[in-house]
Amino acid sequence: MKLEEIRAAEARLLLSTYDRSPVLFVDGDGVHVMSENGAKYLDLLSGIGVNALGYNHPAIVETIARQSRALIHISNLYYHDGQAELALRLTERTGLDRAFFCNSGTEAWEGALKLARAYAGLRRSEGAPIGTKFLALEQSFHGRTFGAVSTTHKEKYREPFAPVVPGVEFVRFNDVADLRARFSSEVCAILVEAIQGEGGVRPLTQEFFAEARHLASSTGALLIVDEIQAGMGRTGKWCAYQHYGISGAPADRSSSVGWIHPDITTLAKPLAGGLPLGAVLCTEEVARAIHAGMHGTTFGGGPLACAVAIAVIDTIEKEGLLQNATEVGAYFQDRLRGLARRHEAIIDVRGKGLMLAAELDSAELAKRAVAEMFKRRILINCTSDTVLRFLPPFIVQRAHVDTAIAALDEVLTENAGAPSESSSAGGHRHV
Ligand SMILES: *Cc1c(COP(=O)(O)O)cnc(C)c1O
C-alpha cells in the first residue's frame, strides 16, 4: 500500500489516537530513516527516545537473529538465561538490588506503584504509621494505564477516563515549600522524574530532589524515580538521578554513596534498543513486599527482549556512548544557546546529555518549527506546547548536530515574527 491508501485505511480502521506526520518510513541506518520514496531523514527523536543505538545496528540485528533462532518466548513459568544476566547488569549500574521485567513504560510504572502500596501495607503490618497516598509532580508524565495516568498531571489525559485511581496529590514542580506542606505520614511514596520528559525537559533542582529523599526517608515512605525517558545513558549516566549528589556534592557513578538513591526506579524506552521492554528496579528492603503470585506478566522479560537489552548495554559500554552522550550533548546544548543569542524566539535552552530542549515563546511557532524541520528532513518534536525536544540516538555525532542547528537557524530566521521590537520586550528569557 502507498501512503495515501494507508492513511485512508487507518482513518477507517484504527482508533484515532494519533496525529501522524504524513510520511511512510520503510528503512533506517545509523541516525537516519528512509521513507518509501527514498528520502533520507535525520532522526533526532529516535522513536521518542527508544532507538538508543540508532537503526540497523549490527549488535541488535545479530542478537535478534541469533536469539530468534533459539527462543523468542517461553513465559515466566520457566527459566531462560536472559533475566538474571540483564538484572545483574542493571543492578550494578543503578545501585539498586532487584528487578522485575515487563513490556513498556506505563507497565513498569504500574509495577512501581503497586510495589509501593504493597510495601506500605507490609510496613503497616509491622506497626509503622504509613498511609497510601502518592505525591506526584505538576507537569509529570508516567504513562497511559489507569495508575500511571492517575499520577500524570495533565488534565486532558485523566479527565476523559474519570474516576481515575484515587489518593494522588500533585506538588508544584521544584517547589520545596509545597512539597513539605503536602508531605505527611499519609504518603507512601513521592513520585518524580529526575528530568521531566513530556512535561518539557525540566530537570529537578538539587534542592528539591534532596528534600524529597529526606522527607521520604523520615517516615519510611518511598522515593520513586521514573527514568523511562532519561535513563539508560541518555543523559551521560545510566540514570539521571546519578547527576544529583546527596549533599549538593557532584555525583559520581564510581561512588554509589555519592548520589541520591531512589527506593524504586523504572526503565523502558531505550532499554531494549527498540524492542518493547520495561523494568522496575528496587532495593532489597522494598522487595520484601512481593511474594510469588502477587504480580506478573505473560510477555515481560522474554528471551528476545532480554538478549537485545544485554547487547544494548554492552554496546553502550564498548562504543563509549555514555561519553558520547555527554560530549555531543554538551556540544548540542552549546549550539542551541548560540542560536538563542541570535533568536529572540528561543526563551530557554535546557536538558542534560542527549535529552535537550529549546523552549520557544509561542506554541504556534513551535508547531511550525517542527513542521519546517520535517520539510528539511529532520525529525524533532514539540512537547508541552512550546518546547522543541531533541532525543537523538546515543550514536549521534557533532556533524549531525551542525546540520540540525543550521536548519533550525534557517527556520527561525524565516519565521521570525515581524513586530519583533514589541513582542520581545518581556523579561522572561532565561538564556
Ligand atoms: C514514555 C514515558 C512513560 C510511558 O511509557 P510507555 O512505554 O509509553 O508506556 C512513562 N514515564 C515517562 C517518564 C515516559 O517518558
Class of the largest domain in CATH? Answer: Alpha Beta
Output mean pLDDT.
95
What shape does the CA trace take?
Answer: globular
Strand content: 15-25%
- Tell me about the largest β-sheet: 7 strands, mixed
What is the helix content?
A: 25-40%
Q: How would you classify the quaternary structure? A: single chain
Structural category: alpha/beta
Order of strands across the main sheet: 4-12-11-10-7-5-6
DSSP E strands, number:
17
Structure annotation, total helices: 15
How does this structure look, described?
- The chain starts with a helix and ends in an 8-residue tail after the last helix.
- It is of the alpha/beta class and 431 residues long.
- It has a 7-stranded mixed sheet, with helices on both faces. The protein has a 4-stranded mixed sheet with strand order 1-2-3-15.
- It has helices at residues 3-13, 46-49, 58-70, 82-94, 105-125, 146-150, 155-158, 176-182, 206-219, 284-287, 303-318, 321-342, 363-375, 398-414, 420-423; strands at residues 25-29, 32-35, 40-43, 98-102, 133-137, 168-171, 187-192, 195-196, 202-203, 222-226, 264-267, 278-282, 346-352, 355-360, 378-379, 381-383, 387-390.
- It has 15 helices and 17 strands.
- It folds into 2 domains: 3-57 and 320-414, Alpha-Beta Complex (Aspartate Aminotransferase, domain 1); 71-318, Type I PLP-dependent aspartate aminotransferase-like (Major domain) (Aspartate Aminotransferase, domain 2).
- A hairpin with a 3-residue loop joins strand 16 (381-383) and strand 17 (387-390).
- The longest helix is centred in the C-terminal third of the chain and has 22 residues, at 321-342.
- Helix content is 39%, strand content 17%.
- Bound molecules: pyridoxal-5'-phosphate.
- Pyridoxal-5'-phosphate binds at residues 104-106, 109, 141-143, 193, 197-198, 226, 228-229, 268-269.
